[in-house]
Amino acid sequence: MSEGSFRAYLAHGSRKISVLSFSPTSGKMVQLQDVVVNGDDVPEDVRAGRFMALAVSPDRRFLYATNRTAPYSFRSFAIDGTDGTLTYLGDAPAVESSPYITTDRTGRFLLAAYNPPDRRRRTGFVSVSAINNGFIQPPHQVIHTPPKTHGILPDASNRFVLAPACDGDVLVRFTFDEATGLLNPNELAPIVVRPESGPRHFVFHASNRYLYMLNEYDGSVYAYSFDPRDGAMSEIQIASVRPAEVDKDVNPRAGDLRITPDGKWLYAAVRVNCTIAAFAVDQITGRLTPAGHFPVDKEPRGFNIDPFGRYLIANGLMTNTAVTYEIDQNTGALTRVAETPTMEDPNWIEFVRLP
């Protein structure tokens, strides 16, 4: 991968997306464009979504966002290949409020997980929508899941799709047909975790042989072996992101989970004390070794790692900052090297290397 030109796409609450230039050598960011998703004219009787999720197409030509202010929708943007700025393409209806989206590996389908905001009728869904040249279509498949589905990803083979259900304490597994864009929920049983763990986000290792899942309520990280031939999984370890000073009865509010592109370092956001927990990943066994907790701005709901694996950018939700940390390639330690002021509620961030 050449150094090239990089852009960062940063979501602010449910209202705006900022386009920033990103230096892969210094980690510094400079704002280039703001795109409005929701203005200030949301009706008083409508619950304005506080966060949105972002996803980039595999060919890096399109950015997709979830509009979590009713009426719920998916929003498409074209990415200018020269300067990385965004052009709005259109909206498609969503089933409910979606905190996580991704594309399949071909970029022809959008996969979405849903977490309805009304706790009195909270359930879970996943959906699949076709994408035609960047334009998202209405979902052609919707499947009920256990409650509070909070993530969804395909494996590298594009044959399996997984979705953690935070309030169901399960990781739901589907087979996926990339020709038809249909999920099959009947071939693989869900993976069950300890009660009240709260499965939230997960990542695949670069080898596609391991999977790591972060649990929001107890701060555990489950490490699994993964067989891309049949989707079989086996638990190999349970680690923890809970800081030593946080009592075992206190919810650590574990948030996002990311892994470096080379699969060497795993990072998890811990909102209870505003730290990022680091783990070294054994490339042979897949097991995790704690590498420390590193303080970040309040509070780290969303963060990401640049495509070279040199920097981790953590957004301070309550300080309105996006802070760049250099990753020590030998120890996994994070060192603060740059700070970018942001608008209100910075959360999700994605990176794109321009052609």
From TrEMBL:
Which EC number(s) does the record attach to this protein?
3.1.1.31
List the keywords (alphabetical): Hydrolase
Q: Where are the transmembrane segments?
A: none
Top EC category: hydrolase
Offer one Pfam family short name for this entry: Lactonase
- Domain of life (superkingdom): Bacteria
Question: Which GO molecular function annotations are given, in alphabetical order?
Answer: 6-phosphogluconolactonase activity
Q: Which InterPro entries match?
A: Cycloisomerase_2, Lactonase_7-beta_prop, N2O_reductase_N, WD40/YVTN_repeat-like_dom_sf
Can you list the GO cellular component terms from the UniProt entry?
Answer: cytosol
Member of which family?
Answer: Belongs to the cycloisomerase 2 family.
Name this protein carries in UniProt? 3-carboxymuconate cyclase
State the species of origin. Rhodococcus wratislaviensis (Tsukamurella wratislaviensis)
